[in-house]
């Protein structure tokens, strides 16, 4: 027997749960969310405590969305009574003497276009403001006050709870198999039954590969298993959120980290370490090899945080060739919406859910999402060159 709903959302992580909530805000009364694991689980990219939220981006395509991003989180906090965003300020650092061409030209250009205030710092000013850092005299910094932490697990809890309270049906432990697209509806076959709906939203992150054929998608989606590590230290008070910001260090590799939050430890990772995998090869436990490399960075630049490893965790980046979002409806099936986060969607999760709900209820959104369309060259051109690393550059060219 086929069960029918007006809207189906596949995936109940940060994006899917947000979409379910925002659909109810748009007046949709009959939403079903299908999730292969338990609700608010720790097995997807939304399972850890913290994600960086920032306005500082390499492209104005993202920076111009940040006003709406912060507004969406504000509404979720007000409605759920659950704090999700913690402002710590954000510090970007680079050493042009070590990494030729490095600088913040692209970042400043994007911030200037969006009218966002920021401060440029010399190495001396970095040390004065944050003596935890050990940096060379040629290091330069960029500080922006709104940077901070999004508690990604709390965000899933908030969106899920709010959606449930408005009547959304969640079906956990339900693995999606075949998806059939029709002119005016979809059919979704799962491990627990067959469902039909007028509209479909697919927010499965790195599991999208399993459904691309059914959805008529043929673009190259590369998966990289990434790792974050938490390090204990006898000097944790130096890294309290009120004393130390979220940070990104732009060198040959890009490292990023957090003050003490969620664990009695500081958190650090490399962005895009490039451990490429197939979906079925993912692992949920990190390793000491990557942990040692991260500990080495701390020993050099944040020595008072360089204690023993408390734990390692993993997540998977799901990246088109240009490592930008895919946020669109299918060109031949506008009643089906798709999202890929490319490894940097956590901060935008609530806004993305809002945009996806706009696309499926109004057929359009007021937010500028053209750069993330399914018709851009990185998606449609098989010869488009892959570029997965996001680097700070001195010029905007």
From TrEMBL:
Its cofactor is FAD. Residues 8-359 form the FAD dependent oxidoreductase domain. InterPro entries: FAD-dep_OxRdtase, FAD/NAD-bd_sf, MTOX. GO terms for molecular function: flavin adenine dinucleotide binding; sarcosine oxidase activity. SUPFAM superfamilies: FAD-linked reductases, C-terminal domain, FAD/NAD(P)-binding domain. It is an enzyme of class 1 (oxidoreductase). The keyword Mitochondrion does not apply. Pfam families: DAO (PF01266). This is Sarcosine oxidase. Its EC number is 1.5.3.1. It comes from the Bacteria. The keyword Nucleotide-binding does not apply. Keywords: FAD, Flavoprotein, Oxidoreductase. Gene3D superfamilies: D-Amino Acid Oxidase, subunit A, domain 2, FAD/NAD(P)-binding domain.
């Amino acid at each position: 027997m086929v069960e029918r709903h007006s809207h189906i959302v596949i995936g109940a992580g940060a994006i899917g749960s947000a979409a379910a909530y925002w659909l109810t805000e748009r007046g949709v009364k009959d939403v079903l969310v299908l999730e292969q694991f338990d609700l608010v689980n720790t097995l997807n990219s939304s399972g850890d405590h913290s994600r960086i939220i920032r306005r500082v981006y390499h492209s104005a395509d993202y920076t111009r969305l940040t006003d709406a991003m912060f507004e969406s989180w504000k509404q979720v906090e007000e409605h759920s009574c659950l704090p999700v965003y913690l402002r710590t300020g954000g510090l970007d650092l680079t050493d042009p003497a070590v990494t030729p061409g490095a600088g913040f030209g692209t970042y400043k250009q994007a911030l200037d276009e969006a009218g966002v205030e920021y401060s440029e710092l010399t190495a001396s000013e970095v040390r004065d403001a944050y003596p935890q850092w050990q940096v060379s005299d040629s290091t330069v910094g960029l500080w922006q006050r709104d940077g901070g932490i999004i508690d990604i697990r709390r965000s899933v809890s908030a969106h899920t709870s709010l959606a449930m309270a408005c009547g959304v049906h969640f079906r956990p432990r339900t693995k999606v198999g075949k998806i059939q697209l029709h002119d005016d509806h979809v059919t979704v076959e799962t491990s627990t039954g067959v469902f039909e709906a007028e509209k479909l939203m697919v927010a499965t992150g790195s599991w999208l590969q399993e459904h691309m054929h059914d959805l008529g998608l043929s673009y190259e989606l590369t998966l990289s298993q990434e790792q974050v590590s938490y390090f204990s230290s006898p000097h944790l008070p130096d890294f309290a959120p009120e004393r130390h910001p979220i940070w990104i260090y732009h060198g040959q590799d890009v490292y990023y980290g957090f003050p003490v939050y969620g664990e009695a430890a500081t958190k650090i990772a490399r962005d895009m370490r490039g451990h490429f995998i197939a979906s079925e090869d993912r692992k949920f436990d990190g390793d000491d090899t990557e942990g040692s490399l991260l500990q080495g960075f701390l020993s050099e630049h944040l020595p008072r945080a360089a204690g023993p490893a408390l734990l390692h965790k993993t997540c998977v980046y799901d990246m088109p060739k240009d490592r930008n979002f895919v946020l669109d409806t299918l060109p031949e099936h506008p009643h089906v919406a798709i999202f890929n986060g490319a490894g940097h969607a956590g901060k935008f999760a609530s806004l993305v859910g809002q945009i996806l709900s706009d696309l499926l209820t109004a057929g359009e959104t007021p937010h500028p999402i053209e750069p993330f369309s399914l018709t851009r060259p990185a998606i449609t051109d098989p010869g488009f060159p892959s570029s997965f690393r996001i680097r700070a550059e001195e010029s905007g060219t």
